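quick one before i forget lol
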Amino acid sequence: MIVAVLIGGVIEFTEPETEEPTTATAEPTTEPTATKEPETEKSEVTKEPETEKNSTEEIKDISAYELVTMEGHPVLYDYLSAAHTFWDNYAEKRIDFPDDHFDDFQAGKTVLIIDAWLSTERELEEHIMRGFEIYPNKEISLNEGLDIAKSYLPLDILRKWYALEWSKCYYSEENNTYQYYVLYAPTESGKESIDEQGLDYNYAGVSLTVQNDIVIGLEVVSTNPLGRNTDGKEIDWEYDFLN
């Protein structure tokens, strides 16, 4: 049985609240000190809390947008362990991992939702990431959204074994919303190579929702085929991430 973890609904980026660690400080005194050694000890005491505080501030200063666009982040078909290795030191639970999604979802700290097959059901050694959902908390254009989506595609795999199936766009005049879709499918030789190596690759698709010229959500998914909302009028739009 194939089990996929998927959080529904649009969740906007939120920055987690962090408590500033209390720093021990020396009380002023007018009395003479017998030796200088106690002062040295008090000075030593304050060093570690200050380091912790600075470290927390550095993590806090990484915005939600920076987290999901950090150079070298994991992509589709990577393993979930790679996502933990990459983001755990920075995210402070602002990444919604499928192995701890309930805590993150309830805390309202999700900036990126990761979908994955559960290895226990698939009898795989690790969780394979099968999708990403991103809901920007800053205004980005269609081109910026496409750049982000491209960074989550396994381009080397797509160039080797896949071909563009189609790209489509639908426009809803009622709410001035455009829905953009791009879908890739394995070629015949790609299917043979994937099957021969026992790889668990499928379709690869991108979906972007643009309302009033602003991207309000995007997905990079492996699905069969990419589900799409066809409400509205289909308009001409051709796009290929591989060109």
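fyi The mean pLDDT is 75.
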